[in-house]
Amino acid sequence: MIEGLAALYIFMLAGFTGFEIISKVPVILHTPLMSGSNFVHGIVLVGAMIALGIAENPTQQAIGFIAVLLAAGNAVGGYVVTERMLEMFKASDKKGAAGEKK
């Protein structure tokens, strides 16, 4: 029971610390910051899969399954955001062609 409370305490501290760190980042840097931290999402996904693999009862299996789903969604979302961000910096042929017709 004490280990569970210690884990909950560490989780809460990590949540508050993460919130404080991210809230200090300027809005314009949020997308590059998240795209640069995609490797962390992959590590979280591996950890969630390991937790699911060692789950012993249905409750642990359900929590592990949800963790894998959320971690996978987070990792995929990070790469989607990165792709959209990189698309903003590419020259568009459509805009150039429309500008020449006028």
Task: Give the fraction of residues assigned to helices.
Answer: over 70%
On the 0 to 100 scale, the average pLDDT is 80
For the record, give the distance between the C-alpha atoms at the N and C termini, rounded to a whole number. Answer: 72 Å
Protein structure class: mainly alpha
The multimeric state of the shown protein is single chain
Question: Which descriptor suits the 3D outline?
Answer: flat
Order of helices and strands: HHHHH
Number of continuous helical runs: 5
Radius of gyration equals 20 Å
Given as residue ranges, the uncertain stretches (5+ residues, pLDDT < 50) are: none
Count all strands and give the number: 0
How would a crystallographer describe the biggest sheet? none
Please report which band the strand proportion falls in: under 5%, 5-15%, 15-25%, 25-35%, 35-45% or over 45%: under 5%
Written overview of the protein:
The chain is built from five helices and no strands. By secondary structure, it is mostly helical. It has helices spanning 2-23, 30-36, 38-53, 58-88, 93-101. The mean pLDDT is 80. It has a domain at 28-96. Helices cover 83% and strands 0% of the residues. The chain is flat and about 60 Å long.
